[in-house]
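User: Before I run my own analysis I want an independent prediction to cross-check against. Here's the chain; please return only the structure tokens and, at the end, one sentence I can use as a sanity check.
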Amino acid sequence: MHMKLTKSLHRTLAIAAIVAMSMLAAASVQAQELIQRKHGSIMEQIEQSALHNDPDAEIRELLDYASTFKGTRYRSGSSSPKGFDCSGFTSYVFSKFGYSLTRSSRSQINDGEPVTEKKQLKPGDLVFFNGRAVGKRIGHVGIVTEVDTAKGQFKFIHASNSRGVTVSNSDEAYYKRRYVGACRPTK
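Assistant: Structure tokens:
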């Protein structure tokens, strides 16, 4: 009887495991469909706005599109919605709007018109920072989302090594002491 009970228990556990795996697979498919709908809707808005040729509207849509990736994990060397590094994120987002950015943060500073003062920054500008070691070498890039010209501060969306795609403030100690410069990307 003990052997019969053990076989029955194993069979029940195996069936439960199969059911659980099927439920997880279905949830994964539903999540992927939701992401596709969300990004598809943003892309439709982008295409409609491009017809009106409003640069401010395009930048707002670019920032809306970038924000759909909040929470996406950091992945070194990657430029895909499955994971981004900082320059992979900026090049991916801008490419959807017809910009061709180079693939490294060090070279992206040359992919547009220089913005020499923080008070001249606008949403959509690229901002550059030193890497982990403070010095002159660029090691990080983000996209300006908001500017407070009175305080000389800005918020930017970027692929953070520790938090994935997130929004940070230029007055955070880490970024404040590492700010290098900015550019306004050109097509």
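Sanity check: The chain has a mean pLDDT of 85.
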